[in-house]
């Protein structure tokens, strides 16, 4: 029996568009997308330009003056697909190399520096946190280290009280890592609901989350274990609700993507930053507050300056040539009047 379209899953690593507004048009199909092209896809959905054209038919060009207010990308490691109840579209992911949204974050920070947009990049398992703009104030109370997140699990409002744990344990290390990531998703939604004004400003927000709890459960118990199967079902429901909540908070003007990768081909290493070290610097990629190496507007500014200098140089040459070859008696009214006055005297 053929499954309904909403319940079909792309076999293998996949990119699933969980939520998207109507003006961001994703076409249904089995067009594969390379892992290294996902940052370009995210940039295009937010209305930014990219260095190379994205020759991928899954995303169509949208309205020029209507762009989503936020983009949320969740990377789930250790599973090739999730049984998400509802989604806009799903595509195979080929060449699953590690990627980051650093280039998109730089663009957001450069174009909307005065509006201080929310930029949050988080990987709880690696205790990796990177924030810019209003995220420093909004997510100040967000638990960062695994010790903080596990302490949060024992407090009021913990997800342990509402999740059907089934075979998962509250004492096992791998189980706690997975539950900690679920808790972080819940806390992000709760903090945004407390600061709803962030979703109504004119600057776009960017969220990038990397979850590896399922990967640890697969290593610990095996992918055929009941713990792994229960965790997969829990995460699918949690991500579905997480996407719906953020989509609603931003007034149905947000794109939520889920990337499921069983194994990255190349390990990704990044320098982690503590929440206490998050500073508002001009170049988030440099600890020395250096200027950006390249800006997307560089070509435009270079041409404006170049041709303006050429025009001014030609103007100076033409004016100097005419002044040098000018006859004071005929071309200058000052000398002409002076000459007539001398004759009268």
Q: How would you sum up this structure in a few lines?
A:
The chain is an alpha/beta fold and 345 residues long. The chain has helices spanning 38-45, 102-111, 135-138, 146-153, 173-194, 213-221, 226-249, 298-324, 328-331, 333-344; strands spanning 14-19, 33-34, 70-77, 89-94, 119-123, 128-132, 205-211, 254-261.
Walk me through the topology.
Layout: E1 14-19, E2 33-34, H1 38-45, E3 70-77, E4 89-94, H2 102-111, E5 119-123, E6 128-132, H3 135-138, H4 146-153, H5 173-194, E7 205-211, H6 213-221, H7 226-249, E8 254-261, H8 298-324, H9 328-331, H10 333-344
Parallel strand pairs: 2-4, 3-7, 3-8, 5-7
Antiparallel strand pairs: 1-4, 1-8, 5-6
Helix pairs in contact: 4-5, 5-6, 5-7, 6-7
Describe the structure.
The protein has 345 residues and is of the alpha/beta class. The radius of gyration is 28 Å and the shape is elongated. Strands 2-4-1-8-3-7-5-6 form an 8-stranded mixed sheet, sandwiched between helices. Helices cover 37% and strands 14% of the residues.
